[in-house]
Each structure stands twice: as C-alpha cells, then as structure tokens.
C-alpha cells in the first residue's frame, strides 16, 4: 500500500489587495501518495499555481499545515525552506529560466552542485539523463539561445530531476510549446512517472492532464472534485479521454 508523501490540514492562503484580503486557498485538506501523478486543474484564478507553490515550500501558507512525509514545513524560515527544497523538490516551469551564459551541461550541473559534489559520476549522470530525454552529445555544449523551446524544456526537466527529488512539481510545463514538442515533453514525464517518481502538475490542457493518475479540480480555492485514472498507457486512450472529459464537463470546465 502506497504511503503518504504530502498532505495538508486546513491549508489557507490569502493576499492583501489594496487593503482587501483575497482568500485564494480556503481550508484545503489534501493527501498525496508516493508514486502519484497528481494533476491540478481549474479555471483561471481558482488557485492552482498558488496551491502548487504552497505545497512545495515556494510560498508560505497563511494558515494551516503542510506535512512533507513526516516533516511540517509551513513554519520553516526562508533559509530552511531553501535547504528543504534543494533536497526534496524538483521544479519545472512554463518558462525554463536557463542561465544564458552557461552550456546545457553546466546548466544541469549548476543545480546539482548545490546538493552534490562535483565528481565524474555526477557529470556522467547528467550526460546520461540528457541522452535519456532525447538530447545528443553535440547538444551538451550548446547555449540556451541555440536550443528550441522543446529542447530547452528537456534541459529544464533534467535539471529538476538530477538530485532525485521526492516530488517533481510542474507548473504548465507545455504552456509555451507547440504540439509536437508538448507531446515529446509529456512522454518524458510519463517515463519519469513510470520509474516511480511522484509528480504534481498544474495544467489547463486536457492532453496534458491525461498523463496523470489523479486529477483534482479546484474552484474558489477548494477541491471541487477528483477523478482517478490508471497509469498512462494501461488503458484505451479514447476511453481515457472520454472519461476525463466527462468529469471536466461535470465540473463546468
């Protein structure tokens, strides 16, 4: 039986806007199991990205608790959160944010060296991961401005997983990619999940959501509904799509 890797109790997040409190996440209880591929969906302004950042320690909740395994993280200082994220979390964003003055390989190693020692084994691991996501040896010494959007996002994924995070967080990872590059990137996420990686991903895209094993639909800062699926590729895609579409229609997506 899978164990809980992340859970919240009465999670709240508010922002002050011209003296008015805006409650984005409201008393949210959530549990994520090890190995889940959880997709967070909802209309614009429903709190998807806010929830992702609160779960990952990128932002502190206003109230409530966040348990990462058995560790409460909501009261950590900013420095403690930074150390915690480096050792436990990987992040893939819509914009890749590669360092423009560093090569592909150095971009990956820069993130890794904060946690690991610079050893031949680490360099080999980075190279192997880059090859696994479809890049080639001649790409290792390229700079970000020499990459396509899809290639840059692959580098971003390798940078996110090289430290073996307990959870990989992704915020609209295909949002700036064309359909072909999006499919390639989603195939990588599927392979990563099949290897046992826990993933939490925010998306507004049906094709992206189909890769998950669990879809949470947010409305006004709370979970309106939940839809579970088997691992991608273990069922008929047409049936899978129809089931998820029906759920989203019921949610008013």
Outline the structure in words.
The protein is of the alpha/beta class and 253 residues long. It has a single domain (35-54, 77-251), classed as 3-Layer(aba) Sandwich (Rossmann fold). The protein has helices spanning 48-56, 78-88, 104-113, 120-132, 149-161, 179-194, 206-209, 237-251; strands spanning 4-17, 20-33, 37-42, 63-68, 71-72, 89-92, 167-171, 198-202, 214-219, 222-228. Strands 6-7-8-3-9-10 form a 6-stranded mixed β-sheet, with helices on both faces. A 4-stranded antiparallel β-sheet has the order 2-1-4-5, with helices on one face. The longest helix is centred in the last third of the chain and has 16 residues, at 179-194. It is globular. The mean pLDDT is 93.
TL;DR of this structure?
By secondary structure, the protein is an alpha/beta fold. It is 36% helix and 27% strand. The chain has one domain: Rossmann fold (3-Layer(aba) Sandwich).
For this entry, give a set of tags:
alpha/beta, 8 helices, 253 residues, 6-stranded mixed beta sheet
């Amino acid at each position: 039986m899978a164990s809980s890797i992340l859970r919240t109790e009465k999670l709240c997040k508010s922002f002050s806007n011209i003296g008015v409190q805006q409650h984005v996440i409201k008393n949210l209880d959530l549990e994520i199991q090890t190995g889940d591929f959880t997709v967070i969906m909802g209309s614009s302004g429903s709190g998807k990205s806010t929830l992702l950042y609160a779960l990952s320690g990128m932002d502190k909740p206003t109230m409530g608790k966040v348990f990462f395994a058995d560790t409460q993280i909501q009261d950590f200082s900013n420095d403690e959160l930074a150390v915690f994220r480096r050792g436990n979390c990987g992040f893939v964003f819509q914009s890749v944010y590669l360092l423009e003055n560093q090569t592909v390989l150095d971009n990956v190693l820069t993130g890794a060296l904060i946690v690991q020692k610079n050893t031949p084994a680490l360099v080999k691991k980075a190279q192997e991961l880059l090859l696994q996501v479809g890049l080639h040896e001649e790409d290792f010494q390229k700079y970000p401005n020499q990459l396509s959007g899809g290639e840059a996002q692959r580098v971003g994924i390798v940078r996110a997983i090289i430290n073996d995070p307990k959870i990989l967080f992704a915020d609209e990872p295909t949002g700036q990619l064309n359909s072909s590059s999006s499919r390639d990137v989603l195939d990588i996420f599927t392979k990563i999940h099949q290897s046992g990686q826990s993933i939490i991903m925010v998306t507004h895209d049906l094709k992206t959501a189909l890769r998950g094993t669990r879809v949470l639909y947010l409305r006004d800062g709370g979970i309106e509904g939940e839809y579970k699926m088997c691992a991608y590729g273990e069922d008929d895609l047409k049936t899978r799509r129809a089931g998820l579409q029906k759920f989203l229609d019921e949610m008013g997506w």
